[in-house]
Amino acid sequence: MECCGNCFYHTIVDGEWTCDNDEAEDFGLETDYNHTCCDFEERK
Predict the structure, then answer these.
(1) So which domain of life are we looking at (predicted)?
(2) How many angstroms from the chain centroid is the CA of residue 31?
């Protein structure tokens, strides 16, 4: 299962990429930069 769905649900917390999609089962857990995305984009 994909953790965050796309880049827009990844954020940097204390220097670590973290899933912040509260609907994902991995919410709040550290993820790899490219867990489900190729290029990170800042959320609007």
Answers:
(1) Bacteria
(2) 6
